[in-house]
Here is the input.
Amino acid sequence: MKTLKIEELSKNFGTTEVLRKINLEIDEGNFLVLLGPSGCGKSTLLNIIAGLETINEGNVFIDDYNVSKVEPKDRNIAMVFQSYALYPSMNVKENMIFGLKQAKTSKEKIEEQLQKVSTFLQVDKLLERKPSQLSGGQRQRVAIGRALVREPRIFLFDEPLSNLDAKLRVEMRREIKKLHQQLKTTVVYVTHDQTEAMSLGTKIAIMNHGVIQQNDTPEIIYNKPSNTFVADFIGSPSMNLIKGKIIQNSNNISFIADGSKLEVPINNYDFKEKSDLNNKEIYFGIRPEHIYFKKLNEDDFDINLRADLSEYIGHEQIVTLDYSNQEILAKFPSTIKIELEKEMKLYFDLEHTSLFDFNTKERL
Amino acid sequence: MQDNLQSSSYKQLEQKSKYTNMFLRWFLYFVLILFASYFIFPLYVMVVTSLKTMEEIRQGTLLTWPSSLNFDSWLVAWGGRGYGAGDTFLRPYFWNSIKMVVPAVFFSTFIGAMTGYVLTKWRFKGDQWVFLFLLFGCFIPFQAILLPMARTLGTLGISNSVVGLVLVHTVYGIPFTTLFFRNYYISVPTELVKAARIDGAGFFKIFFKILLPISAPIIVVTVIWQFTQIWNDFLFGSTFSFGEAAPIQVALNNMVLSSTSVKEYNVDMASAIIAGIPTLIVYVLAGKYFIRGLTSGAVKG
Here is the structure.
């Protein structure tokens, strides 16, 4: 049984296609993050799961029960919004129990739930306050509390941290993670922040233009992005994509960047399909953190590149390098002294490369 | 030496800017007082005249203070002289106006709030067209609809009645009240409605429990606007009602213009003030809510 299953779901706003044939499954207790740039349809998808938007095609199942046409309140979900959406005229207590009162829960049960949740979230001293008298972090807690008292099957979070300042955001992120560890409720979480996605999610679904690009664990998303969009979206700075082609002869496969003669051996790359590779136009993807200053592994490939620019960002520096007229970035510890406008010997970690078809942008 | 020179010239500049500021300040006061008196002056004349006897008025001293505080003309304006035919006084028409303005303001405000709520929080296909047509209602000159409206009232059998006027004012208030509420609710995050829907609240519950409690500022604005419009209306009042059903502005006009004998300026002035007092009261009572932002900080940080 899947806690949440989405089947062939499509959604249009007029002639604009917002979601196209979405398929998604979440097991009990998982933390799924919907990640993507603004306008990719992630919030629409969340609203559809909540029942706040209608569906054009496809179905949504919660616990194997088709809820596509079920009212939001009957879906056994709770949602936390970006603007917190606390009812301005009600105090914290009224805000938190509003849903239970609508559901005609007994007074004793309401009191018990309120007690439990407000102590758990440390808002029990704020119960009589109006939302306008709370700080950003407190509002966020109350909003989560309002969701918690309903004891839902699925928690939906719509960019809940975007309105907080940087420091508070990191704190609340940790609290949400803690919360999930303790409660083990299934969560669907929408964000455009990759750090948030990486640190919170047990699964990440990366979306673009209404299509799920990749849905996997954070590790796989980071190490084996399924196309150039994912490769480019995840990581900061993002993955270097060097344009070039494959040279294949007898038992040697290598990569040559456009305008270069240097052959980079890619024999050990885990190709999905090994045939018909010769002369194939590809992107050679390597993350800035996988270009080393010192040789770390036996297989590291040494290469001479010219450094053009160095950006100091505290614990490390980002160096812009020139690879036969293509700009690539590398990340080094800031203790290393880089001489600009000069060639230096660097090492590519070939264990951590990704190859993409130039035309389809898909992983090879 | 250099420093000294510098500091003395700074002192001069300081002195100079002090004088400039002082001059500007006094100039500002002067202009403000000028404009204020421009507005207050007619009112002064009205009040003073209403307190004078006809004798005093005939002496032609428009601006002088009355010799004694004489409220007789006020009593006449309000309650008449007590003889039968031809004695027009404001009291019955004042109540006509109250009976017209209270329901008309209530219904137009309520319907406007509801429409504004639907147009912003329950968007539907073509809702912008509905809004556009409503806006159109704001710009239609009311003279243009007098005849069709008269027909409608006749068909409904409520012409020349307070009920008819309530209907007319409610209908023609809706474009404005909708505009007010729509523009207010558009700034209320739709997430509030979403959260309430997930919490299990329906269409009316969301309106009454979530949106109306935060609408105080716009309700006040709308009520002031509608009250002023309807109370001061002369066109609809004079077209759709006559005789006993007329609102106060029509009665005032009848009193002042169709007076058979001598023009009684003191009674006219008192009547005009009586007709204007309710609007003033509404402004004084509700004015402070005008400025209050009741939702501030309620939803976002």
